[in-house]
Amino acid sequence: MKPKNFYITTAIDYANGKPHLGHAYEKVLTDVVARFRRLKGDTVHFLTGLDEHGQKVQQTARKLGIEPQELCDEAARDFQSLCRDLKISNNDYIRTTEERHKVVVRSLLQKLWDEGQIYEAEYEGFYSTRAEQFLQEKDKVNGAWPEEFGEVVEISEKNYFFRLSNYQDWLVEFLREREDFIFPRYRQKDVLEFLKEPINDLCISRPKERLEWGIPLPFDEEYVTYVWFDALTNYISAVGYGEERFAENWPVDFHVIGKDIMIPPHAVYWPIMLKACGIEPPKHLLVHGWWLKSGSKMAKSTGNIVNPLDLIEQFGPDAFRYFVTREMNVGQDSDFSLDLFMSRYNSDLANDFGNLVSRALNMSQRYLKGVMPTDPVIKEEEQTLRDDWETTCREALELFEGMQFHSGLERVFQFVRGLNRYAEQRTPWKRAKSEDPEDQALVSTCLFHMVEGIRLSALLLSPVIPGTAEKVGNLLGENLVAQWGDDLSWSDRLAGREIGKPVILFPRPKPNEAP
């Protein structure tokens, strides 16, 4: 039987907004995991997409005097462009206005209705248009509605409800049995804490007189589907739920989401929805933190949003990908500043790695005519370097496997800095002036080890900076973005190989060009 694909998803972006740093980071994080798994030999299916229905999309379109679909098409272009600009390697892009999605949503709702798991009832209470959700008195803070809910009004209307509360005990037991369901694990405690209080049944509809822009309920065409039974279902509609091919990907290995949509949507609603429909739950949720600016969450209302496209345009996608992956410990919040970005760019990328590649290729052209030696000498310094690589590779792979990409990158760059120190010890630029055969042999040996170390470093860095790895690979005559296999072992594969001329991988901006 064919093994199941490694299936990973991002949350789908909402069409009523523009791409920002949080969107870009989530896609990069998911892409790094996907590329890492492919390099290890897995067949990966990577999904991202766009959530297109809802009241805010309808309202914004009306204000602009356009149809909701036109607004969504524009948003899709923006978000898909972001994916291309960041070199995101998604296999599929799902839009919730696609027919393949609507069919699955309606089939699930009809199934639950037929089984009596959805019922009709009158609702009286509070409603937040901004959050598109019903509220209770317990949602108030110090007797007032939090700003995130915007204007809150009292309403009374008939709607349809899913019997969410019937599954509360099951979910608690599931989370206790699956202690690794959420990464990082401490977030699972937050869900269990939430479930200590009784949960209400979930309103899954909106009357068309109030909201037309949605998927009509199959059992009552005067109502449309509310956001969660629409948006969350993308994870299964995109991989062929109801078809034989569904088993190729499901259950998903990781849903990558932000902490703000963990409770209740992904950690409560989604597993219960799947359980009620007889579908296996996800294997894991990978929950990342927020990017902060001066300690505060970035938000349109505060005007401290960072446009990732500006940085990508000026410094290239790999610099952006490296910064966000290196700087954020997955699961925790991290502070963004342009000063910190420039520090990482200049120190790690331009100086440590970029300068290493440039000087190694430059000296190889000058002293070896661009051809790697076939008989490098291995003395104590060279053996130490090779031993350090074995340790680096083992530790970095373990860290990557554990989603500790920031620490894994630091470990690789320790080795890169070690390569630079090795060059300073061997001083090939001085020995090249000597006529002593031993000095000449050490020049060849040093440059051979520098270039092999560059090859190996670029291999390990390729999930994070794939464009740079590809450039380095072209210079060395190697494919550094293919499956790793035995390629991560120190070898003499470059012996006798003609290599390229030096290039500047990460040009330093001029003072007046800095962001």
Structure description:
It is a single chain. This protein is α/β, with parallel strands linked by helices. α12 runs parallel beside α14 (405-426), α13 runs parallel beside α16 (437-461) and α16 (437-461) packs antiparallel against α17 (466-476). Helices cover 47% and strands 15% of the residues. A hairpin with a 2-residue loop joins β11 (216-217) and β12 (220-225). The chain has 17 helices and 17 strands. The mean pLDDT is 94.
Please tag this protein with its features.
Isoleucyl-tRNA Synthetase, Domain 1; 515 residues
The beta-strand count equals 17
Instruction: Summarize the amount of helix as a percent range.
Output: 40-55%
Model regions low in confidence, pLDDT < 50 over at least 5 residues: none
Proportion of beta-strand residues: 5-15%
Q: Provide a count of the helices.
A: 17
Give a short synopsis of this structure:
By secondary structure, the chain is an alpha/beta fold.
Protein topology:
Layout: E1 6-10, E2 13-14, H1 21-39, E3 44-51, H2 55-64, H3 68-85, E4 92-95, H4 99-114, E5 118-128, E6 133-135, E7 152-162, H5 168-177, E8 182-183, H6 186-194, E9 202-203, E10 205-207, E11 216-217, E12 220-225, H7 227-231, H8 234-237, E13 254-258, H9 262-276, E14 285-288, E15 291-293, E16 296-297, H10 308-315, H11 317-327, E17 334-335, H12 338-368, H13 380-401, H14 405-426, H15 428-431, H16 437-461, H17 466-476
Parallel strand pairs: 1-3, 1-13, 2-3, 3-4, 8-14, 13-14, 15-17
Antiparallel strand pairs: 5-6, 5-7, 7-9, 10-12, 11-12, 15-16
